[in-house]
Design a protein that fits this description.
Helices cover 50% and strands 0% of the residues. It is mainly α. The chain has a domain at 17-41. This is Transposase putative helix-turn-helix domain-containing protein.
Length: 42
């Protein structure tokens, strides 16, 4: 596997998305669950 420093160029992709209100609720639910699990291990 090549390293980033050995490549002649670097590039990235920037995406933007516009979730609906239903998708926002799902994203918030997943984020809250992730935060709960993280805090329980800390």
């Amino acid at each position: 596997m090549k390293r980033m420093s050995s490549l002649a160029y670097h590039f990235g992709v920037k995406l933007r998305f516009y979730p609906s209100s239903k998708q926002k609720k799902i994203i918030k639910l997943n984020y809250d669950a992730q935060r709960f699990v993280y805090n329980s291990y800390v």
